[in-house]
Amino acid sequence: MSNFLLDLSFGVKRPDGYVSDIWRAYTTRLGDFRLATRSITGVEEYSFNKSGMCRSAHSGAEETPEALRDRAGFKWRRAVTPPRGSGRAARVAWIAFPTDYLSRPSVEDDGEIFWIAAAPASGATYVEFAYAAEPEQGIRGVLDVVQDRTLVRCAALPNGETLVIFCYHADWENKDLRVPGNGVAADVLFSADDPLATGRPLRHRFGPMPKDEEAVLLLEMGGTAVTN
């Protein structure tokens, strides 16, 4: 018997093969939810426990620019799940993947990754994670009415709640960013144009520390090291 109620590896992919990082979303048999990935600053994991307490964990990589070391170890309490019949859910995480900042793949696809189709150019793909008191059939009914969101996965939890993963496309305003290495490492340029034709091999997440009852809001972009 598997130790996980849900174990999903997923990413976002453009028609030309450019991709996001690979994320892993999984729930333990006790009902705790984990969301994890690897970036240029190490391994990042977000834990959403059945008690409602949440935390981030970060194993830093060497020579990481200081400006990128921004979310190492914090705790908060997620929003309470709305009651059954409300037609609502409590969002706990939200990730934006701007299409023009995806990266040339660095490893061969082994067929075990669930790929979400990227939004058109100058758009973004949004993946959200939420808790609902409705069973999967009720969640599908709500999404059929909303229609602008696609259900990725549902996982029924031991406490009667359901973890819901869904995605959608929306507009995005491209804004390039250069993060200084401060003499410790090269600067990192996040550019929609990729002027050096590197394929944006360095992927990173940006986002504020959530307060109690807030969701983790993340922006994932691909960049490249630059020295001038």
Describe it for me?
- This protein is mainly beta and 228 residues long.
- The chain has one domain.
- It is 5% helix and 46% strand.
- The chain contains one helix and 15 strands; from the N terminus they run E-E-E-E-E-E-E-E-E-H-E-E-E-E-E-E.
- The strands form two sheets. Strands 7, 9, 10, 11, 12, 13, 14 and 15 form an eight-stranded mixed beta sheet that branches.
- The relative contact order is 0.21.
Topology:
Elements: E1 4-13, E2 23-28, E3 33-39, E4 42-48, E5 53-60, E6 75-77, E7 90-98, E8 114-117, E9 123-132, H1 136-146, E10 150-156, E11 162-171, E12 177-179, E13 187-190, E14 202-206, E15 216-226
Parallel strand pairs: 1-8, 7-15
Antiparallel strand pairs: 1-2, 2-3, 3-4, 4-5, 5-6, 7-9, 9-11, 10-11, 12-13, 13-15, 14-15
Gyration radius, rounded? 18 Å
Q: How far from one another are the termini? A: 54 Å
Secondary-structure element order, N to C: EEEEEEEEEHEEEEEE
Characterize the main sheet.
Answer: 8 strands, mixed
Q: Report the principal-axis shape.
A: globular
Please state roughly what percent of the residues sit in beta strands, choosing from under 5%, 5-15%, 15-25%, 25-35%, 35-45% or over 45%. Answer: over 45%
Tell me the number of strands.
15
Number of helices: 1
Q: How much helix is in the residues?
A: under 10%
Summed over residues and divided by their number, the pLDDT gives a mean of 88
Low-pLDDT runs: none
Q: What structural class do helix, strand and pairing data support?
A: mainly beta
How many domains comprise the coordinates?
1
